[in-house]
Amino acid sequence: MDFDLSEEQRLFKESLDRLLADVYDFDTRKKCMKEKGGWSKAVWGMLADHGLLGLPFAEADGGFGAGAVETMIVMEALGKRLVIEPYLATVVIGGGFLRHAGSDAQKAAHIPAIIDGSKTLAFAQLEKNSRYDLFDVATTAKRTSDGWVVLGKKFVVLNGESADTLIVTARTKGEQRDKSGIGVFMVPADGMGVTKKGYPAQDGLHAADITFTNVAVGADTAIGDPENGLPLIEQVADEARAALCAEAVGAMDDSLKTTIEYIKTRKQFGVAIGSFQSLQHRAADMFLALEQARSMSMFATLAINLDDPTERAKEIAAAKVQIGRSGKFIGQQSVQLHGGIGMTMEAKIGHYFKRLTMIEHTFGDTDYHLRRVSEGGALV
């Protein structure tokens, strides 16, 4: 299996790393966190100006027609800089639904606005007690003469506080845990009957709990088959998991580099603590964990294009297991090696650990995916 980037991909990675290094440092992140919605419209516009928001969309829709590898490169770069702008929610997840199943009219109405940065999306999926099961949906969508009426409540909707459009999973028939009878609907965030309660999450990103009280939407708001949307949801969720794996690798990479620089300068007993052999061994273990995670992130990226959805899900689940393990180990060791300063809000190392922890619990934690891998007939 070839993990090498092409020359074009390598140049893209280098230019993106330079761009973010110039415009997005830790102080910039802290300023962005204080803006309305928890992220910067100016930074989002900069990402749009450099074509990053249009990267995965087809050229016919105004994008660049890039693939999963380019998304991996972007997410890893965003992870290194702890970028909090809603690239995952809008481009990867929201854009994924439109790319795979959006009608021509839906693509025309939403994709150009995503690409130019004037519209953001949010995926409203998680419900009370549903845990990580994508098919556990109690929110309903009742068919009417001219569309649908959505009723229910969603929790921890990433970017839900400031999104212009909500992509909502809702049950059109059957019982709460049936795998059939689930639809995906585009609901205006300011629609009548939509109530949002926004809040900052532990990692600095913002989310919202959203209530849909008899929200009327048109017949053209359903993405794909409104009675068999689970395969589409699973596909987009797997793409989001692969993107999160890449973001985690970026966060782990910079976390390790920051920690090594710190132990080279932090002195104890008159010498740098990095000279202690036990800490050198610990840093070496962190490096091995990072390289394991990097390999599995690439593995997940390549798995996205598999034709067999069962095989795709199993391989991406295996990657999520390794990412969770490596992220926990590197995050904990980084904070411990920093000592007390690692526990403060002023030090970025703790922010890396928080983001890695949230990534581990997004779209399934390590135990959940280890169970999926085991049930799929493979071992990690």
Write out key terms for the chains shown.
380 residues, Butyryl-CoA Dehydrogenase, subunit A, domain 2, Butyryl-CoA Dehydrogenase, subunit A, domain 3, 3 domains, three-stranded mixed sheet, 9 strands, globular, flavin adenine dinucleotide binding, FAD
Task: Fill in the CATH topology of the largest domain.
Answer: Butyryl-CoA Dehydrogenase, subunit A, domain 3
Number of domains: 3
Note the gap between the termini. 18 Å
The major beta sheet can be summarized as: 4 strands, antiparallel
CATH H level of the largest domain: which superfamily?
Butyryl-CoA Dehydrogenase, subunit A, domain 3
pLDDT < 50 stretches: none
Number of helices: 11
Helix-strand category: alpha+beta
Order of helices and strands: HHHHHHEEEEEEEHEEHHHH
Q: pLDDT average, as an integer?
A: 95
Categorize the overall geometry. Answer: globular
Q: What is the beta-strand fraction?
A: 15-25%
Strand order of the largest sheet: 2-3-7-6
Rounded to the nearest angstrom, the radius of gyration is 21 Å
